[in-house]
Each structure stands twice: as C-alpha cells, then as structure tokens.
Amino acid sequence: MDEDFLAFLTTAADTRATAVLGDHRDQLTELRDKGKARAAARSLRTLASVYVHRAAARHRDAALLEPLGRIADALAEEQFDDGLWDQGAVHSPPDTAFSIVDLNIAYSLLAEDGHRPTGGVRATVERILRKAGPGLATGGVHTANHRWLVCSALSRIHQRWPDRSYARRIDDWLAEGIDLLPGGEYSERSPTYSAVVTNPALLTLARHHGRPDLYAPVRANLAATLLVTEPNGEVESVHSRRQDQTALRYVPEFWLQYREMAIRDGDGRFAAMAALLRGRGAGQTFGETPLGDRLAEVLDRPELARELPRATSVPTDFTHHDRSCRLVRVRRGERSASVFGGTDLPERHAISSGLSSNPTFFKMRDGAAILDSVRLSPQFFSLGHFRAESLERDGDGWRLRARVRAGFHQPLPRRHRQRDGAYPLTDDGRFWSAMDFPHREKEYRTLRTEVLVRERADGWELSFEVTESEVPLALELCFRRGGRLTGEGLEPVSGAADTYQLVSGEARYAVGDDHVVFGPGNGKGGRQPPVVDPGERYTWLGGSLTPDGIRVLITGRSPLTYRLTLRRSR
Q1: DSSP result, 125-153
Q2: CB contact set of 218 (below 8 Å; sequence gap of 6+)
Q3: In whole angstroms, what is the distance from residue 224 CA to residue 255 CA?
Q4: Which helix (H) or strand (E) holds 390?
C-alpha cells in the first residue's frame, strides 16, 4: 500500500470536505433554481468519502449526516419522472450521467461502510440510481464521448440491480466501436475536455461490464498524452475539436488513470508520470477536479493505492508527428514547440462547435517564456487566417501549405436566366446571395501560402512565402502574460491593448532568466497596416479571434518572402 499517496489524498479530502460544508447550500440553490445536479452530486461523493474513510479527520463525523441527507433529498426532489436532470439541457441523459457516475461511487462507499446513521441517505441515493436507469437506457446523446459516459453510469447500476435492457443498451453503444484515432487521440481530438471523460468511462466498462479489451484505447490515449504534455503540466490542445482548443488544461486530470494503468501494466512511463504528479504536490493546477475529490475514486478502487511499479522516465526529448491530427510536437527538456496544420476548415468550409478551427500554427516555450500563438492573417476577401491544408516533413523541417481562392461571378448562362430575377439563395463560399452562384462561371483570385518551420540549435526559424495575389498581411505573435517585452523597433498599435508592431530589428520577451529573441521587423505604412482580419465568419457574428496575451504584429504585403527567427535562452 502506498501510504504516502493515500495520506496525501486524505488530507486534501478533509480540506475539500470543509469547503463543501461551507458552500453546499449554494449548490442546492443552483440545483433547485437551474436543475444543475453535477456540483451537488460531486459534493455528496466527497462528503461520503471522508465519512467512510477511517484515516479521515471527519470519519463518521455526525456533522456530515445532515448535509449528506440534505443534498441527497434535493437531488431526489429535482429528478424528473424520467430519472433525468436538466444540467443545461432539457432532460439530458449524458448530463445526468455525470452525476450518476458520482452517485454510483458515493452509494458504493456508503453501502460497503454500512454505518446505520447513513441508512436514510443510502435509501435516497438508491432510489435516484434506480430511477435514472431507464432514462439512461433509452435516452440519446450529443457527442462521441457521451456514449461511453452513459454506458459507464449504466454499467454500475446494472451490476448492482441487473436489467437486461441496460446490458443491451451498453452493448449497442459499444458496438459502434471506440473512436480512437491512429495517433492515440479520440475522434474529438480533445486531449483534455473529452479524453478525461472517455478514459474513466472505458476503465469502468472494462471492470464492470466485462470488457478488458477497453483497456487498450485508454493505454494508447495515455501514451499520446505524454507527448502533448508541457514541462509545467499544461496539455497541448491546439488540435482539439472541442472547447479546449483555445483553453488551458492540465495533466493532473489524468493522474488516477496513469496510476491505474501503471499498476495494471507495470508501465514505467505511466508510473513516472504518476510519481511526478505526486511530487509536484498540492500546489499544482488541478483543473476541473479538485485534488480533494479524488479520494472517493481510490476508496472505490483500493488497487489504485498500491505501490507503483518501478518508474522509468516521462519522455522529455523527442520529435513526434501525429498524422491523424496533423500535429508535430518537439520537446527538449524544459523547451518545447508545437507545429499544427490540421484544422477542419479547409475540408469542411465551416467554423462550428465540434470542428477544429484554431488558426495557431506554431507555439513554443523556453521555461517560463511562453509564445502561446503564431498566426498569419492576410486581408484576402475577408477569408480570415491562414489555416494549413497539409503538414509534411520537408528536409530538416515541417512544411505547411494552403491555397485559398475567391471568385468574381460572370453572367448566368442563357438557360439559367429567369425573367422575374427570382434566383435561389446560394453560398459562394464567402457569403450568400440570391444569385444562383453554382450556375455561373467564375473568375478566381487565389492566395498561396507556405510556411517552413525548422528547429535550430538556438531556437526556431519560420520561413514564409505568400504569392499569387497582392494583399496586406499581419503575422501575429502572442506571448503569455507575465513577461517583459522590449525592443527599439516596437511601436504600440493604436486602439489595441497590449499590442505592438515590430517595425525594425529584433525584440525580446523575457520572464526572469528565460527569454525569446525574435524578429526582424518588416517596416510599416498604409499598404501594410497593423490589422488582424479574422474573416467574415467571425466579424459578421461579432465574434473575436484575438488571443489573450501580449501581441506583436509583423506586417507586410504579398508577394512576400520573409524569415522569422525565434532564439531561446542559452
């Protein structure tokens, strides 16, 4: 038994339980006013964990009984007749499943403990779980990861209170096949937002539904996550198709998954990651799941508290090309970089939830000096940022390519003309109009962009070639807040906070002893304004693609050949 690990989680759970006791009434108000059950269910799980755990400071503390009962009663009262809650979507099976997963664990802990004073709470939670079963077994889902979440919630209900319809429903979903891509990401390509749902769900199904084959996709995904984890614990998600494509998420969300698979497989890499996360302690960022909430899972699966196998090492020096996501990851100790050319826009011609659309194609960091984003924005028919159509190895570098076009429309052929002028409303790829675009000949304007990204001994080199049309463009570098930007050639951009134009020479961004020197500037003037055009897909809807941070624009005009150098600390 890893006593240090268990004691660490127990201390965190005691602290977390105190916080829950202080704010659970607010969660109940939200539950009753908005139908949102997730926070209340998670609080019940946390309180249950410290109540049953002998080493917890609040073990069988009578002061927990009233809050436990209050939360359970409120969850039961707000549960609809079909066993579901709203949680942001009306009578939502997948959103309900999140809460049912937590309540399954809480019930299991309280039932195994069997302490008489919790009998009422157990009875109420049992009613909730039994009532939820039919709704989960007949209801639908929204997204790919929801399938496995619903199955995992249903599998534990079925194991305790068997129902053939539950098993059939789980098997129907699983028969669709696990959506694992060759590189180890799932189809939503979300390293954190969906993977942290899918992996625990598949692990639950492996254990409770007799599907040991489901350990394999989890194993592959955890191996892939090692290669997108930054030195400070952030997880690269620029390639995601979900909300995390522009958000920071953190590897501690995977902590217990790494422990479970390390112990199961004897995998030294996974053991090393689990040991690393323990060593970083309570001060690291844990994301959506507070540290103290994790004790319940370990009590539910005591094997997670076994001693880890011998650790080898977490990968820290590699070049990895995930072709299924068109993502290249380079790590050299505390330095790393990402090259991305896999947005869905070139193929789908749409920007929408569930599609990869982040125009960032390069990122790098040298310790605390972090360049969060490099983007290129030509003002070409307001089609928006450069988004690569391919990412290929080219000699000692990586080449990104895109060729976009916009048309001027010729008169309709005689056979398609209508005297009343009532032509169908159609899309020309940029905007809609009642002009029957598909039947018109076009006169196209094109813009071709190529970027060659090469690693150098002291940093990186990005070579740009933009041709076939003459348009102004802006290269945008966005640095993480918290550093100092200096350079004689920097000029503030009027009306844009924390935004500068590098007109000449090089500039320097530093955080302590870590820094990035970049440039050169490329002049200024009315023919190359410091303007980033996100495209009509965003501006028409009032949207924004402005990244948060300290931005530097290097402007120019195509046809353009330009080389950006990024030199790191020595």
Answers
A1: HHHHHHHHHHHHHH---SSHHHHHHHHHH
A2: 199, 202, 203, 206, 257, 261
A3: 14
A4: strand 390-394
Reference 478, options 507, 498, 494; nearest CA is 498
Distance CA 166, CA 30 (A): 30
- Cα–Cα distance measured from residue 472 to residue 376, given in angstroms and rounded to the nearest whole number: 11
Report for 3-17, 348-362, 535-549: range of highest mean pLDDT: 3-17
- Structure-derived torsion over alpha carbons of residues 102, 105, 107, 112, reported in degrees to the nearest 10: -170
Q: Is the dihedral of CA 131, 134, 138, 142 positive or negative?
A: positive
CB of 455 closer than 8 Å to CB of 542:
no
Q: Give the DSSP letter of residue 210.
A: S
Q: Determine the number of helices (DSSP H) and then strands (DSSP E) in the chain.
A: 14, 19
Closest residue by Cα to residue 430 from 476, 398, 384 = 384
| Measured distance CA(354)–CA(190) in Å, rounded | 10
Residue with tokens 């009753």: 32
| Contact partners, residue 379, CB within 8 Å, separation at least 6 | 471, 472, 473, 531, 533
Q: Please check whether residue 430 is in contact with residue 408, taking contact to mean a CB–CB distance below 8 angstroms.
A: no
DSSP state of 570: -
**306 neighbors 1 (Cβ within 8 angstroms):** yes
Distance of CA 153 to the CA centre of its chain: 22
Q: Are 233 and 251 in contact (CB under 8 A)?
A: yes
pLDDT at 570: 63
Give me the residues paired with residue 330 across strands.
319, 337
Please name the helix (run of DSSP H) or strand (run of DSSP E) that holds residue 488, with its range, or none. none
Which of residues 192 and 466 earns the better pLDDT score? 466
Average pLDDT over residues 1-13: 96
Given a contact cutoff of 8 angstroms between Cβ atoms, the answer to whether 188 and 172 are in contact is no
Interval 369-410: pLDDT, tens:
999 999 999 999 999 999 999 999 999 999 999 999 999 999
492 touches 507 (CB < 8 A):
no
**Residues 149 and 197: beta-carbon distance below 8 Å:** yes
CA distance 187 to 318: 24
pLDDT digits (tens, 9 = 90+) for 429-460: 888 999 999 999 999 999 999 999 999 999 99
What is the rounded CA–CA span in Å between residue 404 and residue 444?
10
- Look at residues 21, 128, 34 and name the one whose alpha carbon lies nearest to residue 65: 21
Angle of CA points 555, 458, 450, to nearest 5°: 40
CB atoms under 10 Å from CB of 318, counted, come to 12
Measured between alpha carbons, how far is 490 from 508 in angstroms, rounded to an integer?
10
Gap between the Cα atoms of 343 and 449, Å rounded: 15
Is-above-0.85 flag for pTM?
yes
Instruction: Please give the backbone phi and psi of residue 518, each rounded to the nearest 5 degrees, phi first.
Output: -140, 160
| Strand 335-340 relative to strand 327-332, pairing | antiparallel
